[in-house]
Structure formats: structure tokens, C-alpha cells
Amino acid sequence: MKSTTKILYIERDDTTFTPHQDIPTAFQGQLIPYARFYYHEDKDGSILDQNIRAGEFSIWVHSIHMRPGVELRHYSQYQVITLHAYDDVDCMRGTVNNRQQLEKEVSLFNVMGSAEPPLPGSSQPLSFHINIEPYALKELAREFPLLSALAAIPISNVTEPLHKAPFMLNPVSRLIRDRILRAKYIGNSAYSFFRRNAADFYGNYTRRLIAPAPIMMNEAKRQQLYEIFRYILNHLNEPLTYKMLQQKFGVEEALLRRPFEQEFHLTIPELVLQEKMAVAFEMLSTRNTPVTTIMDHLGFTSLNTFLTTFDKYFKYGALQVMDAQ
Fold first, then answer.
1. Most exposed among 51, 184, 295, 297, judged by the fewest C-beta atoms under 10 Å?
2. Cα-flanking dihedrals φ and ψ of residue 83, to 5°?
3. Which helix (H) or strand (E) holds 86?
């Protein structure tokens, strides 16, 4: 029996959007309010594409339900650099219990616009990727220095992978990805939220591109690092310094530096800042919590420091987030 091939647009620029009310009820819980939607259904199955434009970043989420034997071929209407993550598990759990859950790949491609779908097919039910047009790489690298490694990669006029082998989704890239999938923000504040999270998702990947040769660690040390990682996420109001964590977990400070960065592809101070800002954004968007309460909840001792840190991180004011929702 001959297989059926369908196109999965990984980038498109047409305006044939599907109105919110025309999306089937089964998909309504997955919708990201800030996104624009493309929905298609026929005898072979259905595809819901959600696209978020956030400056230089174009975020795509594909929910795919195809009958057995149907293959999807990736297609872009113009050239993009795409950081592509596949997952076939329930990504909406939002928890990190152990390393075995982090089994899926993140790959980096240069994709040329063409009349024919250029990439291999797939039958995964969820596809998530963030695109950048090549011309924007240098400017982005100036704003987000971690993206310099990406901007330094030679970009050809051929569709091809830009890294020899894919990386696995790690706990940090999964946190960022799932934050984007769950986001219900609207307006200008949503634009700032998605743009910063897209940059963080790319930054976590490019940190791996420039990582030194890995340090060998036994499983006990690795499990310690995951315990510390979970503790940080659940205690953002505490002074999460190297010294405090060293004493709390009875480990050498050396374990908290390069081994931690190797495992999660960001430093402890970077993780603390990233997660504090994510929690702050979520709390501010409810409009029900005073800013001073949020500041205290996240361990800031100065309102000015909190507001300045937030504005610098998102390029958008905390009080503006409260007003935008």
C-alpha cells in the first residue's frame, strides 16, 4: 500500500488564518491566545499550527493527528534557521522527576524555501520549533551574547543540519518550552514574554555548542545536581548563593559550577534569574498581587532593584505587564 504524504509548514507567511471559533473543541485547551492559527482536517487526519511572531523569532507549535501510514514532510516558504524539538509524551505536565523523562531531541537546521518539502518525514504528535531568518543573527547576538556561537556558524544556501548531532531536551529547555505552550498572555506584554523565552531557548542550545569537553560524573553526583536543580525551582525566595547551596546539600562548591553548567547549560545564578523572572511575569499578569508582595516572594529586598531587573530582562516594565492583562 502506497503511503500518503502531507506537508507540514514549519514557516509560512500567508494570511489564511483559522478563526478561534472554528478550531474544534478538542483543541481549544491547547490554544495560545497570542498565536495565530492554521487548522486543516481531511480524511487523513488533522493538523493545528500555532504561530507566534515575537520580533526576530517565529515560534511554531504543531499538534498532529494523522492516521497510520501518513507521512509529514517539512516545508518552509522562505529560508530560516530552525531549532526544532520533537516530543511524543505529555509535555503539559510541567514537572521534572528524573532524567529518563527527557528523551527527545532538539536539532538545528538551515532550511531553504523551496517548491518541494526538503526535510525527512515524521509522525510525531507534537512538533515545536523556533525560527530565525539568517539576516537577524548578528543583531540578535549583540543583544543576547549567548547567540554569538549561532551567528558564527556558516550558513549556506542548502537545507542541512547546522550541528553534527542533535541534543536532548534538558530540564531547562523543557521548562522554557512548556512555559511557552502554557502561556495565556495577550498584548504587548505577551510579545516581550515570548521574545525573551525564545532567546532563552536558543541560548540554552547554543551554550551546548560552545561547551568544553564534558567532565565525567557518576550517577550519584548527577542525581545530586538534579536534587539541587529542583530545590532551586521550589525555593526562589531564598538566597540561592553557591555558599548557601554548598552548605544545604553538603557538597563542594566545585560541583555547583562547571558540572552544574554542563548538565543544565546555564549557571546557577542564570537559572535563578530566569526562573524568578518567569514567576514574576506570571504573578504580575494576574493583576491581583501587589508588586511589593511579588518582590518579597522572590527574595528581592528593594523594589527598585526588582523593577530594574524585570525591565532589563524582558525589555518591558513590570507595571506595564499588570496593566496589559
1. 184
2. -105, 110
3. strand 80-87
